[in-house]
Design a protein that fits this description.
2 domains, about 180 residues, about 15% strand, single chain, three-stranded antiparallel β-sheet, alpha+beta, 3 strands
Length: about 180
Protein backbone atom coordinates (compact mmCIF):
# COMPACT_ATOMS: atom_id res chain seq x y z
CA UNK A 1 0.00 0.00 0.00
CA UNK A 2 1.54 3.34 -0.95
CA UNK A 3 1.98 6.19 1.52
CA UNK A 4 -0.48 8.35 -0.48
CA UNK A 5 -3.21 5.76 0.12
CA UNK A 6 -2.48 5.79 3.85
CA UNK A 7 -2.80 9.59 3.96
CA UNK A 8 -6.07 9.48 2.03
CA UNK A 9 -7.48 6.88 4.42
CA UNK A 10 -6.49 8.91 7.49
CA UNK A 11 -7.88 12.08 5.92
CA UNK A 12 -11.18 10.34 5.17
CA UNK A 13 -11.40 8.93 8.71
CA UNK A 14 -10.69 12.31 10.28
CA UNK A 15 -13.27 14.01 8.06
CA UNK A 16 -15.86 11.39 9.02
CA UNK A 17 -15.04 11.88 12.70
CA UNK A 18 -15.43 15.63 12.31
CA UNK A 19 -18.80 15.15 10.62
CA UNK A 20 -20.03 12.89 13.44
CA UNK A 21 -18.91 15.40 16.05
CA UNK A 22 -20.49 18.21 14.08
CA UNK A 23 -23.75 16.25 13.78
CA UNK A 24 -23.87 15.62 17.52
CA UNK A 25 -23.15 19.21 18.31
CA UNK A 26 -25.69 20.52 15.82
CA UNK A 27 -28.45 18.31 17.22
CA UNK A 28 -27.68 19.66 20.68
CA UNK A 29 -27.75 23.16 19.26
CA UNK A 30 -31.22 22.73 17.77
CA UNK A 31 -32.60 21.44 21.10
CA UNK A 32 -31.45 24.54 22.89
CA UNK A 33 -32.99 27.59 21.38
CA UNK A 34 -31.63 30.12 23.87
CA UNK A 35 -28.44 31.47 22.49
CA UNK A 36 -28.21 30.14 18.98
CA UNK A 37 -25.39 32.38 17.91
CA UNK A 38 -23.23 31.61 20.96
CA UNK A 39 -23.78 27.91 20.58
CA UNK A 40 -23.09 28.09 16.87
CA UNK A 41 -19.78 29.90 17.40
CA UNK A 42 -18.82 27.38 20.08
CA UNK A 43 -19.62 24.56 17.69
CA UNK A 44 -17.57 26.13 14.93
CA UNK A 45 -14.62 26.55 17.33
CA UNK A 46 -14.95 22.94 18.48
CA UNK A 47 -15.11 21.72 14.87
CA UNK A 48 -11.98 23.71 14.01
CA UNK A 49 -10.19 22.31 17.06
CA UNK A 50 -11.25 18.77 16.20
CA UNK A 51 -10.03 19.28 12.63
CA UNK A 52 -6.66 20.57 13.88
CA UNK A 53 -6.33 17.56 16.20
CA UNK A 54 -7.17 15.16 13.37
CA UNK A 55 -4.63 16.82 11.06
CA UNK A 56 -1.98 16.68 13.78
CA UNK A 57 -2.71 12.98 14.32
CA UNK A 58 -2.49 12.28 10.57
CA UNK A 59 0.81 14.16 10.42
CA UNK A 60 2.28 12.18 13.33
CA UNK A 61 1.12 8.90 11.77
CA UNK A 62 2.74 9.96 8.49
CA UNK A 63 6.03 10.60 10.27
CA UNK A 64 5.85 7.21 12.02
CA UNK A 65 5.08 5.42 8.73
CA UNK A 66 8.04 7.12 7.00
CA UNK A 67 10.34 6.11 9.86
CA UNK A 68 9.20 2.51 9.57
CA UNK A 69 9.73 2.56 5.79
CA UNK A 70 13.28 3.90 6.28
CA UNK A 71 14.03 1.14 8.80
CA UNK A 72 12.72 -1.51 6.39
CA UNK A 73 14.78 0.00 3.58
CA UNK A 74 18.01 -0.03 5.59
CA UNK A 75 17.36 -3.62 6.74
CA UNK A 76 16.77 -4.69 3.14
CA UNK A 77 20.02 -3.05 2.05
CA UNK A 78 21.91 -4.81 4.85
CA UNK A 79 20.41 -8.16 3.82
CA UNK A 80 21.40 -7.56 0.18
CA UNK A 81 24.96 -6.63 1.15
CA UNK A 82 25.31 -9.75 3.29
CA UNK A 83 23.92 -11.89 0.45
CA UNK A 84 26.38 -10.36 -2.02
CA UNK A 85 29.31 -11.04 0.31
CA UNK A 86 28.20 -14.66 0.64
CA UNK A 87 27.85 -15.02 -3.16
CA UNK A 88 31.28 -13.53 -3.76
CA UNK A 89 32.77 -15.93 -1.23
CA UNK A 90 31.14 -18.94 -2.95
CA UNK A 91 32.30 -17.75 -6.38
CA UNK A 92 35.85 -17.27 -5.10
CA UNK A 93 35.87 -20.80 -3.68
CA UNK A 94 34.50 -22.22 -6.93
CA UNK A 95 37.13 -20.32 -8.95
CA UNK A 96 39.93 -21.57 -6.69
CA UNK A 97 38.63 -25.15 -7.00
CA UNK A 98 38.56 -24.80 -10.78
CA UNK A 99 42.13 -23.50 -10.80
CA UNK A 100 43.20 -26.44 -8.63
CA UNK A 101 41.56 -28.89 -11.04
CA UNK A 102 43.25 -27.21 -14.02
CA UNK A 103 46.59 -27.40 -12.26
CA UNK A 104 46.10 -31.12 -11.56
CA UNK A 105 45.24 -31.80 -15.21
CA UNK A 106 48.27 -29.79 -16.39
CA UNK A 107 50.55 -31.76 -14.10
CA UNK A 108 49.04 -35.05 -15.31
CA UNK A 109 49.55 -34.09 -18.98
CA UNK A 110 53.13 -32.97 -18.33
CA UNK A 111 53.89 -36.23 -16.56
CA UNK A 112 52.43 -38.23 -19.45
CA UNK A 113 54.51 -36.22 -21.94
CA UNK A 114 57.65 -36.95 -19.91
CA UNK A 115 56.89 -40.65 -20.05
CA UNK A 116 56.27 -40.43 -23.81
CA UNK A 117 59.45 -38.43 -24.46
CA UNK A 118 61.76 -40.25 -26.89
CA UNK A 119 65.27 -41.29 -26.02
CA UNK A 120 68.02 -39.17 -27.50
CA UNK A 121 69.20 -41.71 -30.08
CA UNK A 122 65.98 -41.68 -32.14
CA UNK A 123 63.00 -39.34 -31.79
CA UNK A 124 59.70 -39.00 -33.64
CA UNK A 125 57.18 -36.17 -33.51
CA UNK A 126 53.43 -36.43 -34.12
CA UNK A 127 52.36 -33.22 -35.88
CA UNK A 128 48.59 -32.58 -35.68
CA UNK A 129 46.91 -29.78 -37.64
CA UNK A 130 43.19 -28.98 -37.29
CA UNK A 131 40.79 -26.29 -38.50
CA UNK A 132 37.13 -25.31 -38.49
CA UNK A 133 35.25 -23.43 -41.17
CA UNK A 134 36.53 -22.46 -44.54
CA UNK A 135 38.39 -19.60 -46.09
CA UNK A 136 35.23 -18.17 -47.67
CA UNK A 137 32.83 -18.12 -44.73
CA UNK A 138 35.07 -15.96 -42.49
CA UNK A 139 34.89 -18.30 -39.49
CA UNK A 140 38.11 -20.21 -39.92
CA UNK A 141 39.95 -21.24 -36.75
CA UNK A 142 42.95 -23.50 -36.67
CA UNK A 143 45.39 -25.15 -34.28
CA UNK A 144 48.60 -27.19 -34.49
CA UNK A 145 50.39 -29.46 -32.02
CA UNK A 146 53.76 -31.20 -32.01
CA UNK A 147 53.91 -34.17 -29.63
CA UNK A 148 57.05 -36.21 -28.95
CA UNK A 149 56.78 -39.98 -29.53
CA UNK A 150 59.08 -42.92 -28.72
CA UNK A 151 59.05 -44.34 -32.21
CA UNK A 152 57.45 -44.33 -35.63
CA UNK A 153 54.97 -47.08 -34.75
CA UNK A 154 53.74 -45.24 -31.65
CA UNK A 155 53.50 -42.02 -33.70
CA UNK A 156 51.38 -43.61 -36.46
CA UNK A 157 49.12 -45.33 -33.92
CA UNK A 158 48.55 -42.08 -32.00
CA UNK A 159 47.84 -40.16 -35.23
CA UNK A 160 45.27 -42.72 -36.38
CA UNK A 161 43.69 -42.78 -32.93
CA UNK A 162 43.23 -38.98 -32.83
CA UNK A 163 42.00 -38.82 -36.42
CA UNK A 164 39.48 -41.60 -35.77
CA UNK A 165 38.19 -40.14 -32.50
CA UNK A 166 34.66 -38.86 -33.29
CA UNK A 167 34.51 -36.80 -30.09
CA UNK A 168 37.44 -34.72 -31.32
CA UNK A 169 37.53 -35.01 -35.10
CA UNK A 170 34.17 -33.72 -36.31
CA UNK A 171 32.94 -32.21 -33.05
CA UNK A 172 35.83 -30.04 -31.89
CA UNK A 173 37.48 -29.61 -35.31
CA UNK A 174 35.97 -30.33 -38.73
CA UNK A 175 39.26 -31.00 -40.50
CA UNK A 176 42.13 -32.89 -38.82
CA UNK A 177 45.38 -34.16 -40.35
CA UNK A 178 48.51 -35.68 -38.86
CA UNK A 179 52.02 -36.48 -39.92
CA UNK A 180 54.94 -38.30 -38.26
CA UNK A 181 58.32 -36.60 -38.54
CA UNK A 182 61.69 -38.08 -37.54
CA UNK A 183 63.66 -35.86 -35.15
CA UNK A 184 67.37 -35.54 -34.53
Amino acid sequence: MSSNSIYKIFGGLSTAAIMVIAGCLLSTLFKQSNSNEQELSKTIIEIKNARKEALTEVKSMKIEALKEIKILQSNTLKDLEEGNASSISRLTKARNNAFDEISKVQNKVLNELKVMSPNESESWWLILVARNGGIWDGSQTSAAWALPMKGETQCEAAGLKVQGDKNFHGKVYQHLRYSCVKGK
